[in-house]
Amino acid sequence: MAERNNRTVEARGSIPLTSTRMADTTRPLRSVEGAAVTLANWRVAPHNRWGLAHMREVVPSANVARDPDRVSPLRVDVHDGLADLEFAVDGRRRTVRSWMAESDGDGLLVLHDGVIVHEEYASTLTPVATHLLFSVTKSVTGVLAGLVVDRCGLSVDARVGEIIPEVASSGFGDATVRDLLDMRVSIDYDEIYDDSTGMMARYREAIGWLPPTDPANPPDLHGYLASMGRRDGRHGGAFRYLSPISDMLGWVCERAAGRPYAEMLSEWIWAPMGAWCSADIAVDRLGAPRTAGGLAATLRDMGRFTEMVRNGGVADGRQVVPASWIDDLLTGGDPEAWRGNEYESMLPPGGRYRSQWYLTDARGSQAVAVGIHGQWLWFDRDRAVTIVKVSSRPDASNDWSDVVEQAMFAAIASAVA
Predict the structure, then answer these.
(1) Does residue 20 carry a pLDDT above 90?
(2) What is the CATH topology of the domain spanning 2-149+246-416?
(3) What is the helix, strand, coil percentage profile of the chain, to 5?
(4) Could you tell me the maximum CA-CA distance found in the chain, to the nearest angstrom?
(5) At what angle do helices 243-257 and 136-152 cross, to 10 degrees?
(6) So what's the pLDDT on residue 362?
(7) Can you say how many angstroms the Cα of residue 134 is from the centroid of all Cα atoms in its chain?
(8) Mean per-residue pLDDT for 7-26?
(9) Which DSSP string do the residues of 267-326 spell out, in sequence order?
(10) 135 an active-site residue?
């Protein structure tokens, strides 16, 4: 089975590294439960179960190529009975199997010491199919930024407007790269996922994830970012989760390196970590990458990526990301900046946010990357456990589901370690 899948993936690796796939956004893509999937509804249930696993057919994307000569095999040693593992939240008992169904889980991967001990897929998702990861992309961008710092001399103390003069007069102009990394930028924006007419809708139109409705709205991502204003409050203050910040971070990385995001991600991370499949990054109408939420990848390759971070930037014996960057990512961050934000309940007391990752404690024993509609990377360094879960939940954000997800991850880690 593994060999057959490997050969299938190698055939996909021939796509040129700089290629861009242009989706036809003018026609219905597929019928789900009797209704057509379109650009207007591909992220909305029930269409999202198909849409999130077929992003490249909906919106333009750039290829993040793997290297077929450097594929790092994953060993498999299945842990019998893990699907029936029980865990409790507030007195209600569930199993891994029942929660996967209840949470519209599309795939679950568990690794212990780098070995696959559990792997399951629902719907049409397969080991060689990519799934949109939404804001898990932010955490990938945070790791890539460390390589831009290391290889291209990007300073985390540099002002954004000095790196990108086009945004010098915007709300981002006097923020630092570190402010971007840690989501401590005071821009005029509200992250309201069910907003169908306000800031979030205009943002989605600019990135090409909704049909354009307002000719006055910037028609591209960079134009939108350059148009954003400042809100009261200093940069570098409290944590405030805003997706355009991560898109700006991606733009900074591209400008500092002088290279496309997809190319850097491929050559500096995807290929050297031994990815099994190529990935995709969504791009706007002008080719700007959606570095806040546009990565689509396979479950196993996200397992490889997360294992690399858990192991201090090392993959298959190679130092892919500087150990110093990963160490700072896992142990840095300001708990005072985190305290009092709307996501505070997602982490235990003492939680922090650093370089686009959520951290549970001061020593970084557990780290989390999260995307809307139920996308998760989770690892426990003490138990050498890595978990990846992808879903197509109908709700974009649900605090209660986040609690249950993490309780399941902790139970799994206890069972397999």
Answers:
(1) no
(2) Beta-lactamase (3.40.710)
(3) 35, 20, 45
(4) 58
(5) 30
(6) 84
(7) 5
(8) 40
(9) IIIITTTT-SS-EEEEB-TT--B-TTT-EEE-HHHHHHHHHHHHTTTEETTEE-S-HHHH
(10) yes
Lowest mean pLDDT among 53-67, 190-204, 366-380: 190-204
Q: What distances in angstroms separate CA 175 from CA 168, 172, 181, 240, 293, one per listed residue? A: 10, 5, 11, 14, 21
Catalytic residue among 103, 135, 170, 392: 135
**Burial label, 289 (beta-carbon count in 10 A; 0-12, 13-18, 19+):** buried
Query: Which residue do the tokens 């370690």 mark?
Result: 417
pLDDT at 126: 94
Q: Round to whole Å and give the CA distance between 329 and 333.
A: 8
Q: What is the secondary structure of 31-96 as a DSSP string?
A: EETTEEE-TTTTTSTTTHHHHTT-GGGTS-EEEE---TTS-----B---TTGGG-EEEETTEEEEH
Q: What one-letter code names the amino acid at 293?
A: G
- pLDDT, tens digit (0-9, with 9 covering 90-100), for 335-360: 999 999 999 989 988 899 999 999 99
Helix (H) or strand (E) holding 336: helix 335-338
Q: In what order do the strands lie in the sheet with 352-354?
A: 115-121, 105-112, 385-391, 375-380, 366-371, 357-359, 352-354
In this prediction the pTM is 0.92
